[in-house]
Structures are given as C-alpha cells and as structure tokens.
Amino acid sequence: MKTYIVGNWKLNFTVGEASIYLHKLLKALPNYRDIDVVVAPSTIALQPLSLQVDRHKIKLAAQNAFYRDYGAFTGETAFSQLRGVADYSIIGHSERRYIFGEDDKMIAKKVAAAIRNRITPILCIGETESERAFGETADVIRDQLIGGLSEVADDNVDKVIVAYEPVWAISSSKVAKMATPDEIAEVVKLIRANLKEVYGEKTAKEIPVLFGGSVSPANAGAYLMVPGVNGLLIGGSSLILSEFVDIIETAKRTRS
Ligand code: 13P
C-alpha cells in the first residue's frame, strides 16, 4: 500500500503564498512513486494551483466542499466543481465538526458526494479529550466511522481514506498533548476491526488509515511505524516547507 503524506494548510497562505510554496515544494521533491504527497490549500487557491502542480509529484486536496452538486446554496463550493481540480478532499475534520457544526449525517453525504465526483474522501474521525477521559473513545470512533460511511455503497467503501485525528492531539487545541504510538495503535486497530465487522476483511485491509495531530519531523518516523498506519495528516508542520519535506523524506526512509 502507498504511504500518504497530506498537508492541511487550513486557513493559511494567500493564493500567491500558496503558489510560491508549491513551486518550492515541487523543486525540492523527486518523484516518489510509493508516496502520495498531497496538499490541501484554501478553496480559492485550488484552481490556480491545479494549473501549476505536477500531479506525478504532488496532488491537491480540498479542505471541505458541499454535498449537493448545484443549486441555491449561497457561499458553498460543490464537489462537482472540484472535479479535475482536486484529487482528494478532507471531510469531517474536527474543526468542521466543532466550529461549523457538521454532524455525521452531513459528513456521510459529503463522503458520498466526493466519491460520486471521483474525488477521494479523507474521512477524519477522532475523540475529544473529555470523550477519552469518560472512556467513550471506542463508541465515538465507531459512530463517526460507520456514520461517515453510511451513504457510500458497500463496493465503493474501499475508495475512502480514513484519518484518525484525536481532537486533543491537534496543535491548535487547548490541550495539544502528543499521542503516543501505543494510543494510536489501539485506535487504528479499532478502526480496522469496525471496518472488518461491517465491510469484511478485504475492505478493512485495503482502506488506508492516516494519523494526524501535532505531527512534526521529530515524531513522524515513530508514527509511521505504528502498525496499521499508512500515512500522516499534518497541520502546522506542513506550513513550514523544510519540515514538510523532512517528513516526506522520513516516510521514504521508513518504507525502504
Ligand atoms: P496539527 O498538525 O497542527 O496538529 O494539525 C493537525 C490537523 O488538524 C491536520 O488536519
């Protein structure tokens, strides 16, 4: 299976800054066949960057989009409009869930809309600090995972990437504790067990599972070695070119 290194730029960089960053990143990277390097700029930068990017080296992801393909939905961008522009879309990020009130039902529609438009969904799931403290992690993971996939036909579930991002480990969260490899391994096991139970062993094995939350050059190697982890979803560190490149090179070393 490929390794995925995904940079989520969140609400950072002007279009010009994003273009300069991409230019430098393209120059810094060889073409790593077994690593998919993906960056997720703001929606406004996606189209210009799609003209600039060399897709053999780097692919683009949306950070969010709307599930209807057209209509009276002021302010939204549809997955149908991102066809040919973005290859991936992050969906259900905790910032979408907790700041913008997205629930599993809406997220499920977005996952289905992405697939319908040939965009690979990166479905983010993860428990908050208090959910973990109350022993609810397994339930939250199951609800967000199975809920998020509920609108996808069974034979399309293998088109999804799952990202485990414990909310308490995200650098912008109040606590921002670093997850240990053991904590991650336990939840990744749970994710695959749930997938196996609902969709069967083959699908459970085929779905890439990424980890995200305060990933940096210092911990990327250890996180990539966690059994069942197929890549990383990176916020803060992906904004610093040298750190992002360092993480990609670590991924390359870890694989070989
Ligand atoms: P940080 O890497 O800044 O913790 O962000 C993680 C994240 O939310 C990526 O989607």
From TrEMBL:
Stored InterPro entries: Aldolase_TIM, TIM_sf, TrioseP_Isoase_bac/euk, Triosephosphate_isomerase
Keyword annotations from UniProtKB, A to Z: Cytoplasm, Gluconeogenesis, Glycolysis, Isomerase
Enzyme class: isomerase
Annotated positions binding substrate: 8-10, 214, 235-236
GO molecular function: triose-phosphate isomerase activity
Gene3D superfamilies noted in UniProt: Aldolase class I (3.20.20.70)
EC number: 5.3.1.1
Pathway named in the protein's UniProt entry: Carbohydrate degradation; glycolysis; D-glyceraldehyde 3-phosphate from glycerone phosphate: step 1/1; Carbohydrate biosynthesis; gluconeogenesis
Record-annotated active site: 93 (electrophile), 165 (proton acceptor)
Reactions it catalyzes: D-glyceraldehyde 3-phosphate = dihydroxyacetone phosphate
Localization annotation: Cytoplasm
Pfam family, one: TIM
Family from the record: Belongs to the triosephosphate isomerase family.
Subunit relationships: Homodimer.
NCBIfam families in the cross-refs: tim
Protein task: Involved in the gluconeogenesis. Catalyzes stereospecifically the conversion of dihydroxyacetone phosphate (DHAP) to D-glyceraldehyde-3-phosphate (G3P).
The protein, known as: Triosephosphate isomerase
Organism of origin: Candidatus Nanosyncoccus alces
